[in-house]
């Protein structure tokens, strides 16, 4: 169906509905794909909404947090019975909002459905911004790296980790990554240029593994997983080391977190552990683009996406994040532009 | 015995000997007081040692760490069969070291014995420096406080905590302290000028207690205890809060630390947790004295010491730190000057 004809069309709109709050590991059956028939692709004349066709959806670990009904958190949870949401790229099909016109590409928080009518204007930036800016803010600002320092990245083949490792190499650091399959380990060493990498699932003693890869200790740890890995890393930090924490994927599916037991070592070693969130770095977005785009054009920074086609395959792709099925950034293509 | 006569005297030297490495909660019987007879109070003519009379000894929580044989730590452990050591003030009785002369007052790492012959020159500063500089570096440098912020101090009547609370008030912060007896709570409110204080032993739900004292949340937590208190504080931190960690007294006597389970919240709130040690701030010692001495002279900063007389009472005083027996800085007077 060509764009020009869509405007007057009536379509069936597929949606991924969040069924109910999740305990423990999420399952595909925590979501259900429904179809609303007879959606008119036109905004009513008395409305100020825009109507978009959703093109790409991003699967990100933080989405698991929204599946739990915890009032103490700063992100609101999903509402059972409505579509789940996440970052996405969309195309404006019809608009009664003067800020947007037909054909505009927009990005921002997007419902997991094929078409979406919304009052909320979206950002008009690239969707790759979120993990990229996370890596940029977390590494350069929170970790304050210096040339020659020893850097460890967990979940290193993921959307954020692969960039952190490459930024560390650009800075002249020694960088080792961990991942959950041998293929990912090879990717880290051969595509992303990590100095070394290991499969954490094959290391019965993470403390011993880290001592092997970092006999001098670790200056910077870019933390994506928490749990046993963080406990092992803390024991291997150097004096005045820094740990940047943007996620703790190993803990998202636990009702009772494992706990971290070696915090005493942060006193001995005077270590800083700092949580951060990408939205604190939104003001630096254009500075980040000025930094990264030349490297991407020259092929000096590489980026791997794991692309799944079709909204109906979205639930499986999202669940797969938590068992490490994705290689790189997990994206769902609903409709190629 | 007057100083003048000591030089030619022969004395009995009492010592507090560390018996063996400690597991769990230390006991008085982990130390033993012995007496060496016939110590001549004169340095041999072919030596470069100094001989001191120890006057004051400091009891500090970190000393528990030296009772455990853990090779991974940056402080070496005590040697079984030798006197325990800690900060102390001494007077030079005889010296073959040209840097020191008879009658000098010196401070530094001191053996727990009445007289001590040593090659190691000691610092010649005030013994109140250690906790004072800890409070100063930890609060002003690590916590980076701003006027009007909400500050929570645990172990607040202790040597470090009482100063942190007063520094926070000087800065124009709102400060609440926790302690383990009602008397200490009164001291915090009435002597040290904390805005409020509570007895953590009477709070079955620390999270609820903190929500009551900090309905707006906590900007700065000066951490002295770890364990359940840290877990509760993390849940109550405000966005971009800071936690300075100089000790974790609740964990020193555990072979298996309790663990901290709410670290995910440091991501939601973008909180910084930073370990620090007083020796990183030694270069700022004279700046610290310039800052604190006028306040002490004017009575605007108060300091409470808990003084025990007699070396033989040292083991009980040291053990008492871990059950909160002391009120303020625990000092042992061996010989009033």
CATH level 4 superfamily of the largest domain in chain A: NAD(P)-binding Rossmann-like Domain
Order of helices and strands of chain A: HEEEEEEHEHEHEHEHEHEHEHE
Could you please say which CATH topology of the largest domain in chain A applies here? Rossmann fold
What kind of oligomer do you see? homodimer
State the end-to-end distance of chain A. Answer: 12 Å
Mean pLDDT of chain A: 88
Name of the level-1 CATH class of the largest domain in chain A = Alpha Beta
The unreliable regions of chain A are none
Q: Supply Rg of chain A.
A: 21 Å
Estimate the helix proportion of chain A, in percent.
Answer: 10-25%
**Largest interface by Cβ-Cβ < 8 Å:** A-B, 36 and 36 residues
Protein name (chains A, B): NADP-dependent alkenal double bond reductase P2
Domain Oxidoreductase N-terminal (chains A, B): 14-113
Keywords (chains A, B): Oxidoreductase
Pfam family, one (chains A, B): ADH_zinc_N
């Amino acid at each position: 169906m060509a764009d020009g004809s869509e405007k007057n069309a009536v379509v069936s709109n597929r949606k991924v509905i969040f069924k109910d709050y999740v305990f423990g590991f999420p399952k595909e059956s925590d979501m259900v794909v429904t179809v609303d028939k007879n959606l008119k692709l036109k905004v009513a004349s008395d409305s100020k909404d825009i109507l978009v066709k959703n093109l790409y959806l991003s699967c990100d670990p933080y989405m698991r947090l929204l599946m739990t009904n915890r009032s103490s958190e700063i992100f609101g949870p999903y509402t059972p019975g409505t579509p789940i949401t996440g970052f996405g790229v969309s195309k404006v099909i019809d608009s009664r909002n003067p800020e947007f016109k037909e054909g505009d590409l927009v990005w921002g928080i997007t419902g997991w459905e094929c078409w979406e009518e919304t009052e909320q204007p979206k950002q008009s930036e690239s969707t790759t911004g979120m993990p990229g800016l996370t890596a940029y803010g977390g590494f350069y600002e929170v970790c304050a790296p210096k040339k020659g320092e020893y850097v460890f990245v967990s979940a290193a083949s993921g959307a954020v980790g692969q960039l952190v490792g490459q930024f560390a190499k650009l800075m002249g650091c020694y960088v080792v990554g961990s991942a959950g399959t041998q293929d990912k380990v090879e990717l880290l060493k051969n595509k992303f240029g990590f100095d070394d990498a290991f499969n954490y699932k094959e290391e019965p003693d993470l403390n011993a593994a880290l001592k092997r890869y970092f006999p001098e200790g670790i200056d910077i740890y870019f933390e994506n997983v928490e749990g046993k890995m963080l406990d092992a890393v803390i024991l291997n930090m150097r004096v005045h080391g820094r740990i940047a924490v943007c996620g703790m994927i190993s803990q998202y599916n636990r009702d009772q977190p494992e706990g971290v037991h070696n915090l005493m070592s942060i006193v001995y070693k005077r270590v800083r552990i700092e949580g951060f969130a990408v939205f604190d770095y939104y003001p630096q977005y254009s500075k980040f683009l000025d930094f990264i785009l030349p490297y991407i054009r020259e092929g000096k920074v590489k980026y791997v996406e794991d692309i799944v086609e079709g909204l109906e395959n979205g639930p499986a792709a999202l669940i797969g994040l938590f068992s490490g099925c994705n290689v790189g950034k997990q994206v769902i293509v609903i409709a190629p532009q």
